[in-house]
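Deviations from the work plan: none for this task. Representative record:
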Amino acid sequence: MSDSEKPLATETPLYGLIAEYDNPTALVHAARKVRDAGFRRWDTYTPFPIHGIEKDMGIRMTRLPWLVLGFALTGMAVATYFQYWTNSVDYRWIISGKPFWSWPANVPIIFEMTILFSAFAAIGGMLFLNNLPLPAHPLDLKERFRRVTDDKFFLVIEASDPKFDERDTRGLLAATNPVVLDDVLEDRVTSDRIPAPLIYTLVILGAVSLIPFAFIAKARAAKTTEGRVHVVWDMDFTPAYKAQEGNPLFGDQRSMRTPPEGTVALGQLHDDEHLYTGKVGDEWASSFPESLALSEATMERGKQQFGIYCTPCHGQLGDGNGIVHQRASKLKQGWVPPSDLHQTYIKEQPAGQIFGAITNGVRNMPAYGPQISAEDRWAIVLYLRALQKSQSASVNDLTDAERAQLQ
Amino acid sequence: MADQHHSKSDSHGGHDAAPKLTDSIRLSGADLSLSKTAFAVGVVGIGGAIALGGGLFGKQFQHSYLTAFMWALSITLGALFWVTLQHLVNARWSIVVRRLGEFLAQGVVLLALLAIPLLIPVLQHNDTLFRWLNHDTIHGISSKTAYLNPSFFLGRMVFYFAYFALMATFWLKKSREQEKGGGEELTRSLQGKAAPAMIVFALSVTFCAIDFLMTLDPMWFSTIFGVYYFSTCVLTFHSVLALFAMWLQKKGHLTSAITTEHYHDIGKMMFAFTAFWTYIGFSQFMLIWYANIPEETAWFRDRLEGNWLSATLVLAAAHFVIPFFGMMSREIKRNKTTLGFWAVWILVICWFDMYWLVAPNLHKGGMAIGLVDILAWVGVAGLLLGFVLSKAKDTNLIPTGDPRLGRSLTFQNI
């Protein structure tokens, strides 16, 4: 359809006036005139960005940055509050003995949420402030306007502008020496509705996206006798046999194999009963095993191992006030406090019995036999003896010289 | 920023014709007298610091001097990085201020000489500054001697400064050759040379920062440390660049060549690297805090106990929160007064950052900024200023021979 054919011209209202120019300089001069005439509802259209034309058009700085800043701070606050609430209000859990709300760990999430909210605000705000998406525009019907993507420059003043007067405005534009000056009529041909297939697609996608939430809601409300749903099958059921599982490959159906008759694995010959069990015969040994050197080095080793394995619960002093105990008692979940190792009944236990407690565990203290070597467990017992002594030493334990120094 | 140039076709109005440069582009004798004053201030400052800081090899002086030295070095290395970068990415916006970066990069030659008082003790196995020189005091240090030994250390230092000085000299020399003709072809060849130069530079800056700053606490290690120092380099350099340009314009040079648009871009770099410094600094902190490994956490523990905790919080606020929100607005970067304010702010806080890296080595118990720290800082800054200005003598303040100059003169931000 060419511009000269205007089948609906008599009934279709005027959208605005369009002026066409050959070069950017002419457009910029025209823009300055339109700006100075005080028009508000008008725009320029060019094949490429013209730097500085916003000044020639009198366009003020966009408010988008404030919108982005507002959303960024909102994202920051949401991420901070959500992590604070989950970690230290809703689901408190001790991790590595750190405080419930360990903010440094939250910073990456806060950072990401700040960026995410900013990006949404920037994209969404840009679309909103530009009145996008715009399915149809009267200029789309202008045959000549297509060259805006090639080599022509246009200026359009809308008829809805309060300053618009068909004759005067036409005169103003004519004075800018456009190549073509023409009417733009309202678009009564193209529908400005969003295309129906697009709406159907969005509705269907919206409905489908609710399905997972429906499953979650059902699972929270209803009870079932069926097992949990296994989404990733081969991660839930690995081919490896578990220790106590039956195994059809062997005659005795056991997965755990015993060593062949009469053999011992390398380094597993535990023939020193005193060293490996803490017992002599059926009684707890009251002495340290002979192979253990009762030296300064063993004491240091014991101190180090005690520091690694025992202090989290029993504390540096062995008084049962370790960091795990301190944090766990705040949770008030029926925490059984670790023993004070200076209680008389523990001090009176033979060395072998303490060794046995470390090896096999006591009450809710787990067995440390599999983790700490027998020599190191004895070293811990040795250090514990020194620790016990240190917490209940009397003046009589001092040498004469030391006593003299105190006095 | 390099892509925000004017392409010929998108210009309008009077921008199409290559503009004529009518500005003053040489420093006058009166301007150069500042060079002598700065040298004098430098000598007095350093002299005072030596006198009050227990002599040239005194513990206090060595630490104060290292702080000031690393601060000054960051400016010149930032300049070296920036000049190389402009060649590498064929940047157009920056041509009008590139020569200023080339002058600032010359400072590395002076700093090579100023490094000598820090290196003589290494030669003498004197552990005043670098405790790794004394194997008796640090448990486990012997496993690091393959890297931390005086001869290899000094060898590396010679390499770094020889390379930095070579780069600084090369870029200024070639930039002046552009003025004698050579134009497009010479300019293109410099882009090719910038790529390998940048790779060696990146490694040199990383290890230079490790050697001067990280080895102060020889059992501590952080793989991101070189990048941390690099962020300071970019920050201090752009701040000095902005102030340098403002000073020149106040003295009547380059008055129309450097516009709000160029200041805006310099301001963007200052703003961006404020966030970058935080990103790197926090990444370093968070991983060490989370892993909680004794030999790593010890370094932060030194900086989080006693009044060092306040110092760390001040650093976080004054190096990130305040300038980040302060420089966020476009108008602030486009206004010389506000941009100048933030440039000075960044230079001060970056010195404090260097102090925060060095001084806990000396004052374990608590921060104590003294007169020696200030004198050494003023002294090194004075010498650097005097040296850079003297290098600008009899040289154009703008690379008039660069084929991209016209684009830079008409540069506009979107």
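Residues 157 and 216 of chain B are 15 Å apart (CA to CA).
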